[in-house]
């Protein structure tokens, strides 16, 4: 039976005192034995936490006790093992980095489309469906017919929009655009950016892919593959069931069963994506780390940085 509750959350809201919130929030999470990562910035909060049902509920209640976060929404899933190793509360310039100043996602974001109505929108041939995640996330799953911008970081998205807005681009002529991402946060910024560039028909999937996979029955789904998540589960499937992917500890990319069968795969050291990208010195460090992992595994101890079965 799954025993750890996972809560993914974010909210764009003005937090001019965000630096003062860091230590009290960290201390409270620690007191509830909750782990994960929370990002604080002047524009809001973002992150994922995990712990007991009571512990996570207490942290969410603590956050919502701040009137500015009273309407904070979160998405839940469960795991059999703790998906995080420690608690971190970080201060950032942006809670999701695009690098475009003066965007106001809290007031400029596009139109929300609930999961139940998403299929009808993306089935419309006049709609350009855009996956705003990074290429390694898209590689293991996406919506049928979605455009992949092939970005390696979210900060590349504005340039892609500019390139695709000219004649011949997929966004030319003020296209009707539907966007999606893992939990919804990148869509808030990407749709706000498109609206700032003059697009007036901009939509995004409310709650992101995670809410869609939780809500829409598999037999009605337009989703192909699995969804990458930023914790030790690596990926999830419909119903938010654990996926089949592992994580390369050298390059942090998701690995399929085929990847792990490759001659270039050495657990903890290399994979088909990165086997020629690290120096011998780096590989030696990875090998030493993997030895420590295996020793911890033999002692049935949890080693930091290793996905436990």
TrEMBL record:
Biological processes annotated in GO: tRNA modification
Keywords: Oxidoreductase, tRNA processing
Domain Rhodanese: 123-221
Gene Ontology MF terms in the entry: oxidoreductase activity, acting on paired donors, with incorporation or reduction of molecular oxygen
Any single Pfam family the record assigns to this protein: Rhodanese
Enzyme Commission number: 1.14.-.-
Domain of life: Bacteria
Catalytically driven reaction(s): uridine(34) in tRNA + AH2 + O2 = 5-hydroxyuridine(34) in tRNA + A + H2O
Family affiliation: Belongs to the TrhO family.
Role, per record: Catalyzes oxygen-dependent 5-hydroxyuridine (ho5U) modification at position 34 in tRNAs.
Protein name as it appears in the record: tRNA uridine(34) hydroxylase
Organism: Pollutimonas thiosulfatoxidans
Organism taxonomic ancestry: Bacteria, Pseudomonadati, Pseudomonadota, Betaproteobacteria, Burkholderiales
